[in-house]
Structures are given as C-alpha cells and as structure tokens.
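S.,

As promised, the beta-D-fucopyranose run. Input:
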Amino acid sequence: MTNGTSPAAGIAFPAGFTWGAATAAYQIEGAASEDGRGPSVWDTFSRTPGKVRGGDTGDVACDSYHRYPQDADLIKSLGLSAYRFSIAWPRILPNGGGQVNQAGLDYYKALLDALGERGIDATATLYHWDLPQALQDLGGWASRDTALRFAEYAGVVAEALGDRVAKWITLNEPIVVAHNGHRIGVHAPGLTDDAVAAAVTHHLLLGHGLAASALRAVIPAGTPVGITLNLTPVRIAPGAGGEHAARLEQARLVTDAFHNGIFLDPVLFGRYPEHAPQDILPPAELIKDGDMTTIAAPLDFLGVNYYQPAHLRPGDPAHLLRTEEPPLPGISGVVQYRPDELERTCMDWLIDPEGLYELLLRVSKDAPGLPLYITENGCAAEDYLNPDGVIDDRERVKFLHLHLEAAARAARDGANLAGYYVWSLLDNFEWAYGYQKRFGIVYVDFATQRRIPKSSAAFYADVVRTNAVPALPATWST
Ligand code: FCB
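Predicted complex:
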C-alpha cells in the first residue's frame, strides 16, 4: 500500500501521522493516598455507596503509579509514537492551590523520562475530571476561583515538566463534567442543578483559556496547546422531512448547540452558540469583560473524542417508543432515538463510523487550518481470556477497523487530521461503570495486574507500522 487512494488496497494516513494510546490518571494510577496525593472529587464520589457499580474505586486501578515502566514498555512494543495521559491535579496541589507536592511532580518526571527513553512523545492532559476535593468544598467549578486555581496549577506543572511534554491538553471533555457531573449527577461531584451546570460550563471554559496562557508563558515556544472536546454529530432520520422538516431542522440546531457548540463555539469563535437551549447557557452576570477573548485565544490543535452520534426523528415525548429518549428542553414534536439498524457496543453505544468522518470534515471546514487529533476513540467489549491464553476481541478489531477507515477517508478527503489515540491503552476504571466495562487494547487481570495485549492491540500495531488501514472486508456492511 503506497499511494493510499485505492479502497481495494486500503487507505494510507498522511506522512508523519501521530499514533497513540490514551489513558487518564484516576482511571489507571491507583496509589490514591500515596506520596502526598490529596483526595479528588472522584475519590469522594466512588466511595459514596451506590454511585459506582459494585462499589469500585480508583484506589488501586491498574496500579500504573508503580508499574509505569512496564506500561511504557507496552506502548513501545505497539510501535506507538505518542502516549496521552493525564496529570492528577491533587497529586501536584493536594489542596487545589498553594502548597506544591514535590513527590507528585517527581512521579510525572519519572513517567516522562520513561517515555522519553523509549522515544515516545508525551501528550499531557491537565484535567481529566479529578478536581481536588478541597476546591469542591469551596464550590468547585461553580466558583470562578476554581478557574484561577486551574491556571495556578498549569503554571506549576509547566515549570516542572514543560521541557518533557510534547503537547498539552487543558481539559478533557468539559461537557461531561458540566452535564454528567452537575446536571444529571451520574459523575462526580454528583450534583443535579441546571444553574450550577451552566456556571460550571463557563468556568471550565475560562479555566481552559487561563491555563493555556499560563502554560504558554513557561513552556518552550512552539509546544502545542489544545483542548479535547467530545463531539457528537446530530442526524435526522432518513426520509423524515416533509411536514416535519422545519421542526426537525430547528431541533437539529438546538441539539447540535447542546452537544457541540456549547464548548466548540466559545473556543473557536469567542461566543456561546445562538441555538443553545437557555437552560445550559451561563447567565450574563457570570461572563466578565475579557472572558470570551481569554477563552478564544488561538488553539494550536483541537482534540476530538468520538464515540457515537445523536439521532432525531418526529415523535411524541409523552409517549416514547422503545429506543426513543426525551428531547432536549425547548424542542417539541421531536425525539432522540437509536436506529435499530445500527449495531451497539456493550455500553449500548451506537457504532457509527460515518459520524467520525462527518465530524472531522465539518470541524476542518469550521476551523480551517486547525490541526485535529482524535484524542479518544474505542469501545468496550465483553473481553475474556480464553483457554489458549488469548483475548480475541473481534468486536473491537472491527470497531477500530471501521473507525480508522473512516478517519483515513476523512484525511484523504480534506480533513486536517494529524493523529489518532485509541481509547484506551489498558482496561481501567470506567467511571460510574467501575471495572466492569473494558475499553483497553491491552487486557488487565485486576487480581494480578498482569497485562495481556488483545487481538486488537496486534491489529492496531499493524495499522501503526504501515501507517495505513487495510481495506474493509467486503462482507461488512457499514
Ligand atoms: C470518555 C472519557 C474517558 C473514557 C471514555 C470511554 O468520555 O474521556 O475517560 O471513560 O469516555
């Protein structure tokens, strides 16, 4: 496969493409009370009965805090050029601000050195949801001060680690923090308050802008700084136009603003989206002079996480059918639904690689010239170690094959795609699902902490080695 244009021969990725795997601190590190780490909102939440399946916590997780050299070996053995991990704020500033914990910085220096020795570039995320509990006790992201503390934290890690990190990501999926954590309460800190969620939205964005500038004041010139958003293409049921066309289009605009525009428009264009439902918009009094300019400081790249799209069709929210869900506030006569014809993962998430293709082209059009990295994409599957000692995760191989093919096609068709990080390197603590949902390309036997690469790891390593995705088998209908 050399020129990469013939579908029969598969498709090549652009030269110099970044190939990585992603993880997050609370999901893999463990060592929750070691070496001066302070508690985070996820420690509190996971220790609250009924919040996480089976009462699982991140206390031990994959024990990557102690096993990072072995994990760095794994990354190298897959031929990856990059590793995306997150820094635990409460390891660095156990109280959120003020006193710095040197042992926390030393841990990440050692991790970064282990990566560097193996020729792996580090992509460091500053915030993957583990807010120091001390800051939550003062109001958390609902308080403007948390955005200032986030910038303080960014400055501290930039000073200590700035020479070792190839790329910085400020926030991971801020919509999940605002929505799951503060509107519907299924994530830490478990609040269910629309007004709080709206304030959190603004302060996360402000924190992003302030942290980006704090990083840039310290790190070597030219080190890229970006943000990771999970984006959700919004589809209208085929053939559902007719008398419903105008209503469906209005619902599409609102749903798109809810999932995408609410974070994308402020960082790209310095404004909140016109079509956003009122309930999710921060009130004007929280938006101080200069905030939107801070938030919209030019990004060096955008991280895109993609899992599944949203689908809309005409319907009656008072009488929902199977596979239908209520619409967002302000939408009438339209419901969200899950098309029967799409397969689903064991998370019950839709498998729709075309969504990835569409959204890469859309963002490339909206933000011309901005490099895009897929910073997460992957699936959970019912993995098990078979009697031959193998984890033959064919569902994941197929999922990755389909999505890598869509990504390669998008790059070929003009998307400004510079890299891909699979979610995840390891099976890990999947938030409210605990350890039951396995997303890794490497299996973790949590009883022994043994790591065993799955079939998907071999498939992915081949794609990485050839910088190309093989043609899809003719028998797959997509
Ligand atoms: C994303 C999160 C990541 C992981 C995957 C499955 O929303 O960023 O930590 O849980 O979903």
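Residues 11-476 form a domain with the TIM Barrel fold (CATH 3.20.20.80). The two ends are 23 Å apart (CA to CA).

- D.
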